[in-house]
Design a protein that fits this description.
Blueprint: H1 2-10, H2 24-27, E1 33-42, H3 54-60, E2 62-67, E3 70-80, E4 88-95, H4 96-102, E5 107-114, E6 120-128, E7 138-140, E8 145-149, E9 181-186, E10 200-206, E11 219-226, E12 234-238, E13 244-253, E14 262-269, H5 270-284
Antiparallel strand pairs: 1-6, 2-3, 2-5, 3-4, 4-8, 5-6, 7-8, 9-10, 9-12, 10-11, 11-14, 12-13, 13-14
């Protein structure tokens, strides 16, 4: 499968260590259950470096996701929570239809964690949803948004983490205008072998009017090249001090054949994304 080829090549380096033998009894405490299958270090520009621009920061915040049904893109929003290690819990955001397709089958994320030096350590992580009837993610059917949080035990926080430059403090998002340039990062199935499992950056312009909450269903159109695998890709603009500001998320391509390349993408507004993150916190009873 293309997804596993991408992750295998991204994580390939001399001395890559397999950690599949770690005790699964302990790792299974994580919801969903997490198993680190393989990891290695990629020599890339360091996480947290002041030299990272907005696009690079967003790349650090975005991860490939895959299952037997296909692949897609997810990104992390850090939600403030005093009970979590470091005072925040990572919330994975992606297109709801991707999680619907996964169902209760195992799926995988190509995690990218900074090591002690800040370099990228790439790990293929297997997630096993609960076997009971409980759905592990929250689904916003109207906006096709799926979110789930990763409760990582403190003893594994140094081994398994999904860092991000996005947080729920950026609740409102930026109000876009027609014709404004935006960027997005995703994992198209035509993706070449990219070191560090980083996504591909593309830019386009907002092609619809009105934009945001005033638009029908809170979606807007971007004239940019999109492929299968880009669903769930975060759309962003550069804010103050070179920080990325979430503007929305790619949910589908325009066209009758959803397996084909398209020059137009449908994105949901960032306000709906943050509402989904906050709704998840409220349902779990752990909102700040």
């Amino acid at each position: 499968m293309k997804f596993f080829t991408i992750l295998r090549n991204a994580a390939r380096c001399a001395g890559a260590a397999s950690v599949a033998s770690r005790p699964r009894r302990l790792l299974a405490r994580v919801l969903p259950a997490i198993f680190v299958l393989a990891s290695c270090t990629a020599p890339v520009q360091r996480f947290g470096s002041g030299r990272l621009n907005a696009s690079e920061k967003m790349m650090w915040s975005t991860y490939p996701m895959g299952s037997e049904k296909g692949m897609g893109t997810g990104f992390v929003v850090l939600r403030r929570d005093r009970s979590a290690p470091g005072g925040s819990v990572p919330v994975v955001v992606t297109a709801g239809h991707l999680l619907d397709a996964i169902g209760r089958r195992p799926f995988f994320i190509g995690a990218r964690m900074p090591d002690a030096k800040g370099d990228a350590q790439v790990a293929l992580i297997e997630f096993k949803p609960p076997r009971d009837n409980a759905r592990f993610f929250s689904r916003d059917a109207r906006h096709d948004i799926g979110v789930f949080e990763l409760r990582i035990p403190p003893e594994f926080a140094s081994q398994v983490s999904m860092p991000s430059f996005l947080s729920d403090a950026m609740r409102t998002g930026r109000r876009l205008r027609a014709g404004e340039e935006v960027s997005f990062v995703g994992f198209p199935e035509v993706l070449p072998e990219m070191e560090g499992a980083f996504p591909i950056l593309r830019t386009g312009r907002v092609a619809s009017y009105p934009v945001g909450v005033a638009a029908a269903e809170g979606v807007f159109v971007i004239n940019a090249d999109v492929y299968p695998g880009d669903s769930g890709a975060p759309v962003f603009v550069t804010g103050r001090a070179g920080r990325p500001e979430l503007a929305g998320m790619i949910i589908r391509r325009v066209g009758s054949d959803q397996k084909a390349f398209s020059h137009l993408a449908i994105a949901v507004d960032a306000r709906a994304v943050y509402e989904a993150v906050n709704s998840l916190a409220a349902k779990s009873g752990r909102g700040e």
